[in-house]
Structures are given as C-alpha cells and as structure tokens.
Specification:
The relative contact order is 0.16. The chain folds into three domains: 6-135 and 313-330, ATPase, nucleotide binding domain (Nucleotidyltransferase, domain 5); 143-177 and 252-309, ATPase, nucleotide binding domain (Nucleotidyltransferase, domain 5, 2-Layer Sandwich); 179-247, ATPase, substrate binding domain, subdomain 4 (Actin, Chain A, domain 4, Alpha-Beta Complex). The chain is an alpha+beta fold. The strands form five sheets. A five-stranded mixed β-sheet has the order 3-2-1-9-10, sandwiched between helices. The chain has a five-stranded mixed β-sheet with strand order 13-12-11-17-18, sandwiched between helices. It has helices at 46-49, 73-88, 108-120, 131-138, 179-194, 200-210, 241-264, 268-277, 291-299, 312-325, and strands at residues 6-10, 14-19, 23-29, 32-35, 40-44, 59-62, 65-66, 69-70, 97-102, 125-130, 149-154, 159-165, 168-175, 196-197, 221-228, 234-240, 279-282, 303-305. The N and C termini lie close together (7 Å). The model is unreliable at 327-333 (pLDDT under 50).
Amino acid sequence: MVYSDIGIDLGTASVLVFIRGKGVVLKEPSVVAFDRDTNRIKAIGEEARLMLGRTPGNIVAVRPLRHGVVSDYTVTEKMLKYFIQKAIGKKSFRKPRISVCVPSGVTEVEKKAVEDATYAAGAREVAIIEEPIAAAIGAGIDISKPCGNMIVDIGGGTSDIAVISLGGTVVSTSIKIAGDDFDESIVKHMRKKHNMLIGERTAEDLKIKIGTAFKRPEVEYLDVRGLNLVTGLPRTVKVSSEETEEALRETTSQVVEAIHSVLERTPPELAADIADRGIVLTGGGSLLRGLEDLIAYKTGINTMTAEDPMTAVAIGTGKFVEFLSGTPETGVE
C-alpha cells in the first residue's frame, strides 16, 4: 500500500501540516516577513503574522499566496521548506513524499508552480490534490461510494464548492470569496458607517468574536479601536453583531449564490442524495457564526459543519494516497 508521508494544506491564510501516524503537527499563518534592503527573511508563520501592519518601512510582512495561488514563488518555496523542516525535524535522512492540496479552479500552470515549490522545498515525490476531495476525506465522508456528497470548503482566499461521487468531482466551482473577504467587508463597513479605519487583524478579531451571517436572537457588542478618519486620532466604537451581519451580507450571499449554481448543474440523482444527506462545510471560513443557518435557509437543504473544519483539508490531504491505494476500483497499487 502506498502512503504519503506528509499532507500539506497550503492555504491563503494558514498552512497545516499532517504527518502519517501523528495527525496535524503544525498550523501556522502563511505569512512571511522579510527585509526589503537585504532581501533576507526575518520571520515566518505566527511570528510574522504579529508583524502585519506593524512593521517599519524596510520590513514587509507578506502573504506569498493570494486566493489559494502562489503569488510569490521564491517566498513560497522558502516558507514551505521552513514548515516541512519544522514539522519533521532537520535530522530526517529520507526526503518525504508530500501531498499538497490546491483550490479546484487552479490552472495547470498554477499547479506546476505549487509542485515545483514543493520539490524545491525537499520533497521526493509530490501529489497535487483538489481541495474539495481532501476536505471530504478529512471530514470523514466515504467518497468512494456512488452517492452524491456536497462539500463547501471556505478557506482564507477561496471557497471551493463541489459535488463528489465515486471518488471524483462531478460538478465544482471555486470562487475568490472567502474568510479574507469577510474581513475586508468589515473594514469597508467601519469606514463607511463610522468614519473609522481599522486593520486586518482587528477586523478578523471582530469577525471571530461577534461576527454573524444570520440574524441572531441575542445581540452582542464589542468595543473596536481604530483611527478616526475625520480627526486622525485613535477612537473606540461599540459595534453590534447585527452590524456585522449587515457588513457581511454581500460577501456571504456570493457564497450562497455559488452553492446555488453548483446545485443547478448537479445531475438529478445526485441532487436527491444531497437533499437527503445535506451539505457539509469545512475550512476556517465556515466557523463564521450563522453561516450554516443562512445556507440552510436559502437552499432548503440541511447544512452542517464538519467536526474539525480547520484541519479537515490537511487530514484529507495526508490520507488521500491511502484512500487511492485502498480502493481496488482505481487500479492504483
């Protein structure tokens, strides 16, 4: 039986590394801070994330992946090398076999960039897997059966929606609307309604603490600090969860529309299976409160979030080669 040593969920917001027999051993933000003057990397991961929006002119904190695609090849390669070494230790004598997942809509050129970066980071063999397949395996769905399963993976940069049957994707779409866009919507709302400028990290904090995609019976409040655009001085504003629902409405409705378009293109037999089995949400973006209620309300299909949505893709990526080798129908030895 063929096994993959390492599974990597190469996300726009964070990178997760799954090692066979150990589970998810590393989860860090996909952020790299480097010195523009010397072109040397200062920090990678959590350390670099803390620098976002707080660096002097010569140090830049960047995300080398944009919307699930490599936007800076060299930095991605260095980041991958760092995470692989951190996960397996520098004393590893054999080069690992690595499975990496990518959004379902990426081009062959983009896939090749991920593959090359993984080889350059020290892989012996590389397998590229589509995100919805990995998410379904990681969520514990048996995708080898001739039965329709709908998976909605909402990451940091992309949302992947797919109907899976017999181990393959029947209908899928990938939209560049996800967790980062939720944050951006909150930043825009604060500027428009309160004349106040807030950073990405503050917006994310607000989304996590009181953000909601569906009207809730109880209203929650949070004090948000930012910069008054009129006076140019720091100020604090009390924001309600109702406001976040209003701010996020446009972005969440785009995700719902994408789900709707996939359902429209789904063969009737599989659509009947989905109506029966429901829609499964994975990815960090699915943790936004009220999102499953909104999808269920708009589609009329029962919607549930996977047990551990953040790690589902990483686990599925690591188990993918196992899944292939364990299915005689695929003919993979």
